[in-house]
Amino acid sequence: MHGLGNDYVVIDDRQKRIDEKDIQELAKRLCRRGFSVGADGVLLVRNSNTADIKMRIFNSDGSEAEMCGNGVRCIAKYCYDNKIVDKKTIDVETNAGIRRLVILTGGRSVANVRADMGMPSFKRKDLPMIGEGECIDEPINVGDEKLRITCVSMGNPHCVLFVSDLESHPIRETGPLLEKHSSFPKGTNVEFVRIQNSQEIAVRTWERGVGETSACGTGACASVAAANRLGKTGNRVQVNLSGGVLFVELGKTVTLEGEVEKVFEGQLFQDD
Q1: Whether residue 81 sits in one domain with residue 135
Q2: Which end of the chain is less crowded, N or C, counting CB atoms within 10 A of the terminal residue's CB?
Q3: Domain check: are 97 and 187 in the same one?
Q4: Would residue 271 count as lying in a domain?
Q5: How high is the pLDDT of residue 143?
Q6: Is the whole-model pTM more than 0.90?
């Protein structure tokens, strides 16, 4: 499945047939493009004691993530289409807390899914990030450059930079340096943002444990939260990504809306 090209192998593991010690290696093996299924990550559907269903997400390098906006929207559509949850409003337990999803339109192929993403936090301790207080438009040394960053937690960490030109900016060089910068003990996702107007931005994401992706749901939310905090945008913003368009609205919580699509399905046979 994918949300704007941000693609995942979704596995119904409610029976916990996958051994805990094997999950990370399985994710790395399944996500290897050209040699396996190929994906940005693996999503496991699990039973939950506190919500309708539980999601665990593993990046292509095998690391486990706290939350993913596109991933959780994929999970909601998967559970609805397969009658795992027989309603259009679905509560999903994640490592960042419970998220409420609503299936808005669509059939078996494509659907628009809206997610309640919770509240953004600019506090360093919530990312986590070295230091005290918030990180708002602060300078940071990256290689030989000094950049200005705003950091946001959407249940997972994001470092947001505002740039004048997304095409020429050295994202593949700067992204990995910030992802593993000593300021972020657990690493961070990195968003490169160009303000188009007060209601529209363009974003490219360097995703922690994955690399550059065509879209990132939590990254879109973090980008809008940072832009709004700095007075660059309003509360409802269209986010243009290389994979398509997401809509983010800031209110009592942050809502994320966009398309989710099933690409294909198959069977996985474990080796004896």
Answers
A1: no
A2: C
A3: no
A4: no
A5: 87
A6: yes
CA 88 centroid distance within chain: 22
- Give me the percent of the chain exceeding a pLDDT of 90: 95
Last residue of a domain, one of 58, 83, 118: 118
Q: Tell me the sheet residues that pair with 212.
A: 206
Check residue 19 and report its DSSP letter: -
Cβ neighbours of residue 271 under 8 Å, at least 6 residues apart? none
The closest of 270, 267, 217, 261 to 78, measured between CA atoms, is 261
Q: Note whether residue 135 is domain-resident.
A: yes
Q: Which of 37-41, 67-71, 82-86, 105-109 has the lowest mean pLDDT?
A: 105-109
Structure tokens at 271: 């080796």
Range(s) of the domain holding residue 232: 124-252
3-state secondary structure of 174: helix
The residue whose two tokens read 């996958």 is: 18
Residues 181 and 142 sit within 8 Å (Cβ to Cβ): yes
Amino acid identity, residue 238?
Q
Give me the count of residues in the chain: 272
The mean pLDDT value of the chain amounts to 96
> Are residues 241 and 193 located together in one domain of the fold?
yes
Per residue in 21-47, pLDDT (tens digit) is 999 999 999 999 999 999 999 999 999
Cα distance between residue 45 and residue 79, in whole Å: 8
* pLDDT reading at 203 higher than 80: yes
Do 153 and 72 share a domain, yes or no? no
Q: Looking at the annotation, which residues are catalytic?
A: 68, 216
Which strand (E) or helix (H) includes residue 8? Answer: strand 6-12
Please report how many Cα atoms fall inside a 13 Å half-sphere around the Cα of residue 210, on the Cβ side: 28
Judge whether 267 lies within some domain.
Answer: no
Question: Is the separation of the CB atoms in 98 and 51 below 8 Å?
Answer: yes
d(CA 207, CA 158): 9
Strand partners, 193: 162, 203
Residue 152 placed within a domain: yes
